[in-house]
Amino acid sequence: MPGAPLRVAIVAADARGRDRLAGIVGDMGHAVVPLFDDPDVVLADAEIDQPDGPPVVTLGRDDAGEAGVLPRDAWPAQIDAALRAAAAGLVVRIAAPARPQFGMLSPEAPLLTPREIEVLAAIGDGLSNKEAARRLGISQHTVKFHLESVFRKLAATSRADAVHKGLRQGLIEL
Questions:
Q1: How many domains does the chain have?
Q2: Which of 89, 93, 110, 144 has a beta carbon 3.0–4.6 Å from 153's, enabling a disulfide?
């Protein structure tokens, strides 16, 4: 039953952390029980070694094979969903951060035109100006013009430097 309260044991590095997690778990309507009292799931912000015990959801730790792994600053709704999923036998992992997309660039990142990005990506693929021009259906002169603009906007001193800066800023990917 999805809305049924769970029996949750809490393992924390300190009493303050335990009280905070117990408050979150209690606010969700679950019962906080001792670890030895056969809980449905364990919520931990500290290391726990219990290979044959109930499923464990950890906060702010590296993935070490637990049933659930959440960031330390997870919202109560995320914690609740992870506890329920782990108790049901599912594995919970935080999704990888989104890849930078148009509109998500940092404010200090230079704004390249779509064509400049295409030229930079072609150079990143190891193409010469002539090969990039052929791939993009433009003249070699136009490729050179766009590369000069990319160099200026990225403050790059070479093709390799421009590609490196473009990769680091999320403008292109290889």
A1: 2
A2: 110
Asked if 41 contacts 65 with a C-beta cutoff of 8 angstroms, the reply is no
CA atoms of 58 and 75, how far apart (whole Å): 13
Question: Phi, psi (5° rounding) for residue 127?
Answer: -80, 150
Q: Are residues 81 and 123 in the same domain?
A: no
* Strand blocks (E) in the chain: 7-11, 31-32, 41-44, 56-59, 68-70, 92-93
Distance CA 131, CA 119 (A): 10
- In tens, the pLDDT along 18-56 reads 999 999 999 999 999 998 889 999 998 877 776 678 999
In a domain, 104, yes or no: no
Residue 142 shares a structural domain with residue 66: no
- Report the DSSP beta bridge partners of residue 58: 44, 69
